[in-house]
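thought: fold this chain, then report.
action: predict
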Amino acid sequence: MIDGLLRTALTGSAVTLAWTAANALHGKHLPALWHYRVLKLALLLFLVPVWPLAALAAEALTALSPGLPVTTTGIAPAPQIPVTALPPAAVSPAAPMAQAAPAALSVDLIQILTAVWAVGAAAVLAYKLWVYLRFRRSFLGQNRPVSDPAAQAVFTDCKARLGIRRTVALQENPLVPTPLSTGLLRPVVVLPALPLSPEELRYLFLHELTHIKRHDLWMRFFSMLAAALHWYDPLVYLLNRQIRDFSEQSCDEQVSVPLDRDGRFAYGSVLLKLAADRAAAPCEWAVSLSARETIERRLMCVLHAEKLKGRRRLLAFALAAAILTCGTAAALAVRKPLVRQEDDAAQNSRIENAALRETLAERDAQKDAESAREAAVWFTPEDIRDIQSAELVWWDGTVYATLDDGAPAYLESLLDEGTEIASSGCPFHSILYLRRSDGVLGKILPAEDSCAVFQSGGVYYDFGPGDNGELYALFGVNTAKLPQYSGADIQTPAEAVAAPGDTAPSGGTAAPLYPDALRGDTALILSRGGTLLPDDDEASYTVMGGIPYKFFESKPRAGEKRGTVYFEYKVGNKELLDGYQLSLLDTLVNGEFPRNSSGSSYGFDALDEYVGYSPDLHRAGGTKGEIGYTKHSDIFAIPQYTADECPHEFTVPLYDSEENIIGAFPVSCGGHLDPAATGMTIDDAKTAIAGGAV
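observation:
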């Protein structure tokens, strides 16, 4: 912030100073309009940062002017004299050359400067706002429409003469001391309560309407804004005052140029008449025709106004080019920051050192914690007492601590009795570490199956009914975001093997029928609501090409009691996907179908084996080309007809992802089977149709 303000102030001040020098040397020989345009350029540089454009221009010039090759002509090359290499002498490293660096300020000092600037800018803006409100209350509140038809006719004629098509109101006010124009968005010309002839009205209307046509009120507004932003810069106040003065003088010039000598004397008489014993209106919010302090210069502009030509025109171009050169040089000078918080190298070094110290401290703490966990003993039911703290460590090393002080005692009350409970043999995902009040650190293994079961030394602990959600809630663990095993990870559950006395409990499962069956990522399947089928059930396998594959049952769709049987091997296995399926992977969220606000999943059926379950809403196209989703329940609800009664075509609702009906989806009956010809029963035929066999 401070750097940007200083850079815009430098470029704007450079042009203002260059104009001041040009005005002192040749200002009287140049028209007021020339001065006004140069001052508007300085105002632009006070408000708009131009150094990025200057940097681009400098780079372009550098690219267009490459270094010229150095050639030597007429000089014979020096003879090559063999030189015997001498051992290098010890040379002390040269001291680095001092380089000019941008001013480096501390963060605290920059914050203080920013606060001081903000207070000053707010104070200036508040004062300007107070002036405006006083102006509206004291003056503009008394405005009344001009009722004189002659004045209205002259006003309309002047607008047409200047080519002004926008709406400009004409009003009168007994309190204003001089004619003025005001209103940024809705301009108004206000007349004082003075007897003025139609010819005098014509002159003052041309003056005020010229202000409106040139948008001089906007220049006053931006000049005020620059003064508020750069209140610390005295040159911005000089610029503000000169813009106001030359705005009036250049307007007088434009009105006077087409007038003859008598017309100019008449116009000057109007200025004198209105300036006598009267003060100007507030200059930020209105432009007035007359002001006593500049009346002499304005009369000179009126009487001697003429177009630039000859030497005066050449002088104007030369001075404008010189001033523009000063502005360009200032912009090039501030391509790099004037003020920086600190040297980049020092800042980077300090950040790197702090990050290194923090990393080392974290690493030491992590090593200490890992060493303590390695020394932890396996708890038995008798060991679980006076628990003071607990941590759940996931298989990838992620540590979850209990959320509150009451959680360890709650764990103790649930784990103090051990029972022998059959386990499904699912890989262990995490270890529960418990620290007692005497400092002993012990551990048990949560077995991640359908119930919250722990084991240690062949003893299983039943944490409670249902899954491990209640346990995870004590640690603030979001089960939907837990890291999952990959296929390689579940092959070696090291902690499960390391548990002492970990033998198969009584009542365990029988040996699998196909020990070498091709399985899949069972941890991933379970995390997505799937159910592992018994290893000793022939129906949970299929043999293809001599290789046995293991099945599992997916979680049921919304409204259904049973899931679908899929291959374990296909869940999460990208290598089995074709090109079309790979193109659909972006529609998944963390490998699963996205869900709507009511919890229903939606997506493409082509990915159901990869995800591990079928979505509740299936991607489909409507009868009118709409893209939406259908529900299996709607399709299965279609009644069964005989071949003679069936209409053969049906429609079911088409939904958007939020299950709002957006159209209809066409469904065909799929044809009809002749039970007598096929040997099927009616129930077999329905099953075949539903399964897509027909």
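thought: worth noting. The mean pLDDT is 75.
final: tokens above.
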